[in-house]
Amino acid sequence: MTSESDDYMPVKYRTRLVDVVNPIGGESMHQIKVQLSNKEGHSQMLLSPAETVEAIQENSSAWVYADNQKIDPGQVDEANLSTVSSVRIVSGLVGGC
C-alpha cells in the first residue's frame, strides 16, 4: 500500500482529551466547571449554563459560589451564568451545641 492509494481512511476523530470547546455553528459553547460537594463526596463536571442551573436547583439548600462569590440559589438563571467560569455547590455548614 502506498500513501497515494485510497486504501487508508483519513483520520476523522482524535482520541485525546482537550480543554478546548469546539465551535458549533460558528459559536463556541460556554461551559462552566461545576464542583459539587456533599455528604456522598465530591464531583467535578463541565456543564452548560442550563445544566448548571438544573444542578443548582437540585441542591437548593446548599451554598452556591459563582467565581468565588456566594450567590442565592433561588436567583440563578442562565443569563446570570453567562460570564461565570466556575461554580461550587457545597452543603451548608450547621453549627451549634
Task: Report on this structure.
- This protein is mainly β.
- The protein has a domain at 32-90: Ubiquitin-like (UB roll), CATH 3.10.20.
- It is 10% helix and 27% strand.
- It has one helix and five strands; from the N terminus they run E-E-H-E-E-E.
- A five-stranded mixed sheet has the order 2-1-5-3-4.
- It starts with 31 loop residues before the first strand and ends in a 7-residue tail after the last strand.
- Residues 14-18 have low confidence and may be disordered.
* Tally of individual helices: 1
How are the strands of the biggest sheet laid out side by side?
2-1-5-3-4
Q: Characterize the biggest β-sheet.
A: 5 strands, mixed
Quickly give the structural class.
mainly beta
Can you count the beta strands? 5
Uncertain spans:
14-18
Which oligomeric form is depicted?
A: single chain
CATH architecture descriptor text of the domain at 32-90: Roll
The portion of residues forming beta strands comes to 25-35%
Give, in order, the helices and strands: EEHEEE
Bulk shape:
globular
Reading off the top of the CATH hierarchy, the class of the domain at 32-90 is best stated as: Alpha Beta
